[in-house]
Amino acid sequence: MSNRVAIIGVGLSKFGELWEQSIVDITLEAAMVAIFDSGVRGADIEAVCIGNMSAGRFTGQEHLGALAVDAGGLGGVPAYSVEAACASGGAAVRQAYMAIRSGEHDVMMVLGTEKMSDVNQTEAMNTISVASDWEWEGMFGATFPALYAFIARRHMKEYGTTEEQLSLPTVKNHANAAHNPYAQFQRPVPLKVVMGSGMLADPIRVLHSSPVTDGAAGLIMCSEEKAKEYTDTPVYIESSTQASDTLALHDRRDICTMDAVVKSSKEALEKAKVEIKDIDVFELHDSFTIGEITLTEDVGIAKKGEGGQTLSDGLTEIGGKFPVNTSGGLKARGHPIGATGVAQIVELALQLREQGGGRQVDGAERGLAVNIGGTGATSIVHILGR
Amino acid sequence: MAQHGVAQIWRRIRAIYNIEGNTCKTCDTYYFPPRPVCPTCRRKGVLEDHKFKGLGKIHTFAVVRQAPDDFKRQIPYVIAQVELDEGARVTAQIVNIDPEEVEIGMRVRACFRKITQAGTAGVIVYGYKFEPVLKVTGHSYP
What we know:
By secondary structure, chain A is α/β, with parallel strands linked by helices. Chain A has 2 domains: 5-120 and 213-235, Thiolase/Chalcone synthase (Peroxisomal Thiolase, Chain A, domain 1, 3-Layer(aba) Sandwich), CATH 3.40.47.10; 131-209 and 237-385, Thiolase/Chalcone synthase (Peroxisomal Thiolase, Chain A, domain 1, 3-Layer(aba) Sandwich). Chain A is built from 14 helices and 11 strands. Chain A has helices at 23-38, 55-58, 64-72, 88-102, 121-129, 144-159, 163-177, 191-195, 224-230, 259-272, 289-298, 307-312, 329-332, 337-352, and strands at residues 5-12, 47-51, 79-82, 107-115, 199-202, 204-205, 214-223, 235-244, 281-284, 366-373, 378-385. In chain A, the strands form 2 sheets. A 9-stranded mixed beta sheet of chain A has the order 3-2-4-7-1-8-11-10-9, sandwiched between helices. In chain A, β5 and β6 (204-205) form a beta hairpin. In chain A, α4 (88-102) packs across α14 (337-352) and α7 packs across α11. Chain B has a single domain (2-18, 53-137), classed as CATH 2.40.50.840. Chain B has a 5-stranded antiparallel beta sheet with strand order 6-5-4-7-8. In chain B, strands 2-1-3 form a 3-stranded antiparallel beta sheet. The N and C termini of chain B lie far apart (43 Å). Chain A binds chain B through residues 121-122, 125-126, 129-130, 134-143, 145-147, 149-151, 153-154, 157, 198-204, 248-251, 255, and chain B through 1, 3, 8, 12, 33, 59-71, 74, 77, 79-81, 89-93, 104, 115-116, 125, 127. β5 (199-202) of chain A pairs antiparallel with β4 of chain B, so a sheet runs across the interface.
């Protein structure tokens, strides 16, 4: 049996504050687009796996698997959601990858969804905080931006990373998102505006942080053999890996390095039998800009401590050697928590199919996505090829 | 909300009030909060309670300017990772100092404070915060 799993359909809902739409509406939208993109019929889908962090708190509704197949008229197929905080979407992709590789299912639908704007700011902040170690971090007043500020301040102290470098991912990712019709923010933003934006938790500013977003993403995945029945241009998941670290940031060996990312990305490259220089396009989890900086180091694009300089050198821009977050990333595409990991795979698939429009990376043949949960307690890596 | 349930706070009181964690006698590592299993030694680990001295230095920190309702009254406040002298790091607020004067490496000691209150009628949580050490206590800056 083939080691690879094919992606034959991709879909996104609009990302943003979608007051008119419920979690069912956006999830169904992404699912429909993915189904029509793939050419499969509803009856071909054997199971549905959904990435979602906290619909129970954000909307009051859990049990999304049954909800989705019911709403979509998919009948009695198995359906369930998986949770790994901000890495829930990546976890859903990985569950389907394993189910298809095991031979249990041939064709699966993967969804990622989060409806965040139905609650007020305090409830949204508290809900996001439970992705960290709530009892020992959040309860003492460590907001999520504060935890990333811990990393940023330490990175600045140890490696001389500057406030300007902390702002560069925002400028780059907004410029990329200007070419992404699904992105929440499709406008470039000048460096001066980023550096002058309001402080959330020094040194993290509003424009260093991903927004509150409603959105959903979908994939149709199947075995390599089956893919040929539906499309001549499938893209493939070459490897899928996952690692964990301590839940609380204060228990880490080194708060500037996400060991789970180092481990899972190294394993992903080994399993796909490629090196980092063979990767043409990246989606790295930039829930906060310091996250993009440390992830470029942890996956091996930059040496430890040089993530900021890599940005200054333009290495991670489209046209650079290692384009990162062509979609706009979490910062500009938006970060509907459970949808993000799936949306990253959608972007890589579009890039490998050369459907990236104004943000296309020329001749992209291989892509790598890192989806992290919490402050790096979960890391899920996928490498795609064509 | 569940995270503000009385029982959920009550059963952690020894840790939250007294900075009581534990130590693994096999690998000589100190843990706070107390761990159910030593992650290094696992079944070979021998865990004993340990009351931390409450002295340490600031490993990193943030000045929080936007917070959920339970903390809004305290804005701006300093939250830090304090590296305790025994080795464990703990996330806690830094008080009795102007936020602008907080620095990485600064010596601090634990103090007992109100942490938060759940809404207007909810449980009041007390526990540890940290403050700069005073020269009179003999724990001066390095």
